[in-house]
Amino acid sequence: MHVLPYLVAAYIFLAGCYGLATSRNLIHAVGCLAVCQSATYVLLLAVGYRDGATAPVFSDLKPGSRPVVDPVVQALTLTDIVVGATVTAMLLALVLQIAKRHGTVDPDELRELRG
Amino acid sequence: MSRRLRLWLLAVGGAGVTALLVAAGLDLPSFGGPSHPYGDRAVRASLARHTANTIASVNFDQRAYDTLGEMGILFAAVLGCVVLLRQARDEHRAEPEPAEVARPVRRYALIVLPVALVTGIYVVAHGQLSPGGGFQGGVVAATALHLLYLGADYRALERVRPIGLFEASDALAVCAYLVLGLTGVLAGTAFLANTLLPYGTFNTLASGGIVPLLNAAVGVEVASAVVVLLAGFLDQAVEIEEQQGS
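YS: structure for the whole thing
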């Protein structure tokens, strides 16, 4: 199966979306968003993979002696992870404040706005 | 919206997205295929500039401008967390109690702490040579400091971690990245262009031109950012308490 990794990425993304939509707890929702985002890691790395290739690091590898996987998508994945971690931290900080001000982390109970 | 209706909406939308994703996946170049035009060019450019770790070359040379944006996101997120997790008017700070730590935990944490710290600095310094770099090494170094919280207690951690200093170094590291980019402009080339410094000998610490310097700036920024972020959350958990009877 040569499309399996792409389908895995799609599955992870949809699983995260399902979790987000049915979440009863904001911390759980933040975790689901992280799951959605990890689908992009799988997709990016799958796009960059090359059969029989190794890491694109030439400190102990003679250039040209072996094929290497695509470094561009690996760099994109690194960016992705950093942005994901910061977004998670930011959202958790928001959840913390919501829990303090409203006394609940259930999104269904956060209907009305309070000043 | 009722729960039932929401699930139905999710099912319809999910089915549509699944169909599109599967159609797109079937149309992508097959997994593990030999055609990677951008990757091949990135490897060639990286080798031409004597950077052994192609990913560092992509991040800090070929796409250094994007990394600036990424640093901006990190900086903004830290700023947002500091604002969100500040001490509110109806809260007060309680002095954390000294905690009893199991002897093996303390011993292990204090042995591993310097090792982890040096590992973090090593990973940052060798970013242009081996897997790793500023982002990864920064996180390792920042985590190392927090072993003190496990091995001793929160007050010990607070003593080695003056927050103001780390906030300042976070901002200074972002500025350093900008200034390094601007030196290219002042020297008559482009912003963040890697043409100023000699490329050095392949596979040595001083190779890659501007890459090690940008790497170091990112390492300092990430380490400070993680320390400040964790400090915000730990303060909430350990020190800040709601005012009684308010």
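YS: worth flagging: The mean pLDDT of chain B is 90.
IM: good catch. Also Chain B touches chain A through 58 residues (CB under 8 Å).
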